[in-house]
Each structure stands twice: as structure tokens, then as C-alpha cells.
Amino acid sequence: MASVINYQKHIKSPLNYIGGKQKILPQILPLFPNQINTFVDLFVGGGNVAVNVAATKVWANDNLTFLIEMYKAFQQTRLLDTIQYVESQIHKYQLSLTNEEGYKELRRYYNQHKNPLDLFVLIAFSFNHQIRFNNNHEFNNPFGRDRSCFNVTMKQNLQQFINRIQSQLIEFTAQNFDKFDFAPLNSNDFVYCDPPYLITSGTYNDGKRGFTGWSIHEEKHLLQILDGLDTRNIKFGLSNVLEHKGKTNEILTFWLKNNPKYLVHFIRKDYANSNYQTIVRDKDASTEVLITNYEPPKPQINTLF
């Protein structure tokens, strides 16, 4: 029996991850199967989906090794110890909205020693709270002057996030998507994919940070993997965009035409309740979708008895 999670009160990741799904959780989670034994989040990113899905077991995977090591540290360290460490490092390096030298000093220390909790401290004070590495696997995001800090909201999000991953059965793995072992999965399981979007721009697309980038090759390979899951009656959901600023994802469009049984659910740009029959378009619009190989469950009606 899948564990029950209250969709009305989502846990928010402490990370400001590019492409994070926090704002559209009310749209996509109801489209997931009602009963999930094993849930695979193949591109876990900031973890917003993985920590809010109702499943017996969750595999949270990402090829960004240092991100997964940080999650594991959160999971294996007492919450109080993690908070105390973060705050002690902030004090030690005198981190603030204006102390760029302290930030750079911690960044040098992290790149030498790779303590996973130091990565979180850096993220808290980096530009837009982003994660960026160079080809030498050195964290190189600039300082977030007058913008980024470890504030009360971020602390609360961190505490709730850690409590969730320590109380739920979540396994963190650092595999490239095409190396993940899908063999043990069956029809009671569900694979969710939120890959880098081929026709949008992002630091994860360029292949210049020492990790696998995203290109036409990866896009086609992922779609082949999803077709393979479908032949085994394993349910999947794929988040992506069909159009973005005048560009069309021709590969995705062609794939859908060749697989008419796959269903396309449109996600509203304003993140309000979706109307899947119509979508407002303009020249700068992104047509964001969730593609499934199954009919989503009908909305449940709450009763007193």
C-alpha cells in the first residue's frame, strides 16, 4: 500500500533548481497513478517531485554526483547536526549578502575537500542559489551579492525536506539516465522523467560542466527507453516542452505522432488549474506538457464516510 502524502501541503525543496516542478505539483501529481509501488525520479534535480509523491519506495536519481552526495548527507546526518554545521560555516566564513571574499574562500575550500554540506552552504549564498560546476568538477557559481543568503524560509524548507527524506523510503543514486537499472520494475511501478529540455537554454544543456550534457542523441535515447518501459507495461510520465519561443521540439513531436496511444496533458504557464483542451499561445510561450502512457486516474471526491 502506497504511503499517503497530503497534496495540499507540499514539501518545498531548499534548492532553487532550474526547471523545478514545485509550482506545478498541483497539476502533475494528480495525473500520477493512484497506487505506486516503486517510484523512479530519473532526473531528480531539486527533489520537489520525489519528496511529494505517494509511493511505497522512491528512487531519486541524478547524474550530478555532488548533488546526490549532498542529499545522502542530509539523509544520514541528524537534522540538528546539519543545521548546526551550516550555521557554523556561515559564522566561520562570515557569510552575508555582501561578503564576497568569504564566499570565495569557502568555495575554494569546498573544491579542495568536497564536503557535501559545504556545497549547500555555497548554494545558499550563490547567485540565484544555483548549482554550477566547470569541466574540472569545481563549483564555480558566482556570489549572489545583495540577493542570496541562508534566510528563515530557506532554513524551514531545509528542515522539512530533511525530515521527509529521513522518514520516507527514499534511495538516492547517481547514475546517468541510460545506466539506470530498470530490470526490477513491473506494472505496479512508475517512472517519472524531467530531463533537460532540448529546445530551451540552461547550464545543464551545454555539456560544459564536467557532466553529460543534453543533445539530440540523449533526447532520442530517453524516448527509446520510455518505449521499452511501455512494452513491459510499466507506467511512465515525461515532463517536457513541445514549443518554446518559436522553436518546436521536432523529435518529441515525431515520437508522439508515431505513438498515438501516449497522452499529452498541457500544463498551464500561469500554474493555475489546467484546462487540457485549450492552451493560450504567443510568440514567447512555452508549451509545457506531461506525457503519459496510461489514462490518469479520475479526480477523487472526498466524503465524510
Describe the fold and architecture.
Helix content is 31%, strand content 13%. By secondary structure, the protein is an alpha/beta fold. The protein has two domains: 22-63 and 175-292, Vaccinia Virus protein VP39 (Rossmann fold, 3-Layer(aba) Sandwich); 69-157, Adenine-specific Methyltransferase, Domain 2 (Adenine-specific Methyltransferase, domain 2), CATH 1.10.1020.10. Strands 1, 2, 3, 4, 5, 6, 7 and 8 form an eight-stranded mixed sheet that branches. The two termini are 20 Å apart.
Kindly report how far apart the N and C termini lie.
Answer: 20 Å
Strand/helix succession: HEEHHHHHEEHEEHEE
The amount of beta strand, in percent, is: 5-15%
CATH topology of the largest domain: Rossmann fold
Main structural class: alpha/beta
What count of domains describes the coordinates? 2
> What is the CATH architecture annotation of the largest domain?
3-Layer(aba) Sandwich
Instruction: Let me know the largest β-sheet.
Output: 8 strands, mixed
What oligomeric assembly is this protein in? Answer: single chain
Q: Mean pLDDT, rounded to whole units?
A: 89
Low-pLDDT segments, ≥5 res? 1-7, 204-209, 271-281, 301-305
The global form is globular
Q: Helical segment tally? A: 8
Helix percent band: 25-40%
Number of strands: 8
Give the full name of the CATH homologous superfamily of the largest domain.
Vaccinia Virus protein VP39
**What is the alpha-carbon Rg in Å?**
20 Å
